User: Fold these one by one.
Assistant:
Number 1:
Amino acid sequence: MSQSGWNRWFLLSGIVFVVLYLVPGILVGGQVGFMPDGQALIAFVSSNADTVYLAGYLGTLSAFFLLWFAGSLRGVLKGGAPVGDPLADIAFGGGVAAAVIMAAAHAGFGVMSERAASAAGIGPDAAIATVDTWGSLSGVALPIAFAALIGATGLALVRTKILPAWSGWVSVILAIALLTPYSWAVLTLILIWLVVISLWLFVRMGREPTAVSKPAAST
């Protein structure tokens, strides 16, 4: 397989990220939610330590695939941009930041589950602190990082026409929404955006592999 062929398949790592992002919520989201009761949380974690550990591991693992997607997207955007254009690098930086936040938000679940399964157990304050850290990172910090990824990608799409300009403007609008105090209301749109952009670029590169690798003229 050629280098461009590999790069095309790497874009699908964005979809793998979405799947791994959703699975922890399916496993424990109903019990480990916003502002949980301490005693109820301990009871759930103690009786489902393996499930909580798996949820934390998969959430942390998702960061790996988000990094691959961000790097692959950066290559596509740079291929169609003028020399010196910073948008691809800004998008990549946002992806790296989002991956770090994802890993940090979910890593604590592993320690929490191991403590809960130990003879010493875990107190309600420690359990609540772990869940609150996950909630604040996922609900406040993560949207800002994704705003950089999605916003810079959107502007790059408008400039390079790799995809229709309207897709770029929709991305910019989503990025602006993610920078507001109500970003939690549009978190699901991040996942939809990742799936759509991953598949759209995958198909686009398959049909016209040179269309996204020819540098645009500088103006």
Number 2:
Amino acid sequence: MRFDEYRKHDAVSLAGLIAKREVSAKEVLETAITRAEQINPAINAIVHDQYEQARKAVAAGLPDGPLRGVPYLIKDLGFFQTGEPATFGSSLFKDFVADHDTAYVTRCKRAGLVFFGRSSSPEFGLNPNTEPRLYGSCHNPWNLECSPGGSSGGSAAAVSAGVLPVAHATDGGGSIRIPASQCGLFGLKPSRGRVSMAPDAGEGWGGLSTGHVVSRGVRDPWPYRRGGGPRSRHGGPAADECPDLGSQYRPHMQHPLDGAGART
């Protein structure tokens, strides 16, 4: 799958193409990995790659969920995946490796998402920028001298740069909304209790913090809150029931890091 074609689709659309066998999950993953390898040295959005693990997961067969085959990044802040590091952006946890999956990760797997890395977060998610000393600063792909915001800056930078159409994010005091606004994305903080933080926490920050996504398309957040995917107590529409606001909800903007040249 060519990058210029991949870049046009949101997550729901990519899942639809895979379901109809117009493109394979392997092809989609390889396009995402190629873009990540090309652009991440400049933006420093992915702090831990899981490319080989993702390839093995696709080769082994994915669950027939609503987002089957869509590449996904988990924010490196409190959401665990068995056998993978979870540093919270801090040197204090630089050697910590999770021994279990959080409920959110389990539901993402059930939905068919393909984890291929972890995105940068400031230390313990406390800053409105993404500059952890452990990994170094994350850069805004629209202007590498600017911040993508925080604390979900790594996810926002990766989505904005076209690595993937949607990525995991969390928000307590603006950590989805700030990076979304600074990277030209859609970011919604869901209601309290909407997304599970089990089994490691009941709620974050006494209910102030919750998990969700940042995305390029406005319909992508819907399936991430449904029963088969990462949601908690409430129901939600299936992917094919999402309002068709379209992946092309605005004219495609030429990205400064697209095209040929040393910066890409």
Number 3:
Amino acid sequence: MGVLSWAVWGLVVGVFARLLKPGRQRIGLWLTILLGIAGSILGGLLATKVLDIADSDEFDLGSFFIAVATSIVILAVWERVDRMLPDRRRQDQLGR
């Protein structure tokens, strides 16, 4: 049940992050789930260990907002890195 709850939570956080970040993101369902899980983990660590503003064993709305905000930052970094990488599909079409 734990894996399923992480996947559902990751999907919810990832979808909210994608809705709040302007523009079209070229990621699918699985990467949206991973985005939400990564944002939740990093946001949780940031809130509990660094900022000391959240409780590590209870849900609160602030934790959700921190998870979504962290997911938006991860998504922005992902898009930036993706733009810097060469487009392999375009190179294959050109015969390179």
